[in-house]
């Protein structure tokens, strides 16, 4: 319901979403910085002051919000506004069988070259630059991962003992394991499938190692 309180609440919520104070939002919109101050929302005699349609139009232009997005924020004070939808970023996808071939990754384990498919994945692309997806093929990772599952890998994420990781060796073998030990000389890995042996490598044998941050199980 449109009211004096709900429309100011919508403006405050829009300011918060852009990490601005009400005066900061007014300044960005080209208005007097005091236009949206709470002290100006009522006159000295207590009468309600409403923002003009011109002010709202300038706010929408300054923030890139649509009128539909603005009206969705018209909630009474104390009622949380609907969350912003999580944007889906397009990230590269390749199967494990193809990942071992040359040309798909750079020296740091980031996706490179041609031949990748793409999928949509909800993520903050700015914070997770280089994130990619690997398609599980076969049953070598059972019971944790099945054929057709998608693993999301972030080569920039810090890695700690106990993390699930993807490792590529200098010989081109790509595997998903659990990191159990890492020293300047040795990397030890626990197999996800108990029927497959655990692995140990000298650091010089590893081309790159990256953390699995999500799986479509």
Automatic annotation (TrEMBL):
Keyword flag Transcription regulation: yes
InterPro entries: LexA-like, LexA/Signal_pep-like_sf, Peptidase_S24_S26A/B/C
SUPFAM superfamilies named in the record: LexA/Signal peptidase
UniProt key word Nucleotidyltransferase: no
Domain Peptidase S24/S26A/S26B/S26C: 92-213
Entries under PANTHER family matching the protein: FELS-1 PROPHAGE TRANSCRIPTIONAL REGULATOR, PTHR40661
Protein name: Helix-turn-helix transcriptional regulator
Source organism per UniProt: Ensifer adhaerens
């Amino acid at each position: 319901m449109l009211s004096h309180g709900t429309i100011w609440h919508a403006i405050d919520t829009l300011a918060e979403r852009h990490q601005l104070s009400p005066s900061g939002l007014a300044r960005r919109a080209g208005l007097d910085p005091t236009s949206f101050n709470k002290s100006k929302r009522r006159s000295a005699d207590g009468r309600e002051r409403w923002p003009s349609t011109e002010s709202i139009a300038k706010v929408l232009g300054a923030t890139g919000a649509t009128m539909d997005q603005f009206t969705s924020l018209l909630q009474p004070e104390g009622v949380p506004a609907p969350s912003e939808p999580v944007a889906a970023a397009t990230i590269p996808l390749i199967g494990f069988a193809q990942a071992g071939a040359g040309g798909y990754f750079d020296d740091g384990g980031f996706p490179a070259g041609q031949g990748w498919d793409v999928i949509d994945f909800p993520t903050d692309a700015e914070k997770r630059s280089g994130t990619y997806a690997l398609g599980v093929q076969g049953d070598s990772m059972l019971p944790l991962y099945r054929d057709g599952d998608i693993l999301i890998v972030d080569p920039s994420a810090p890695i700690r003992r106990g993390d699930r990781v993807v490792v590529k060796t200098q010989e081109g073998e790509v595997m998903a394991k659990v990191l159990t030990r890492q020293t300047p000389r040795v990397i030890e890995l626990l197999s996800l499938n108990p029927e497959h042996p655990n692995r140990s490598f000298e650091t010089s044998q590893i081309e790159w190692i990256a953390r699995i941050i999500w799986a479509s199980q």
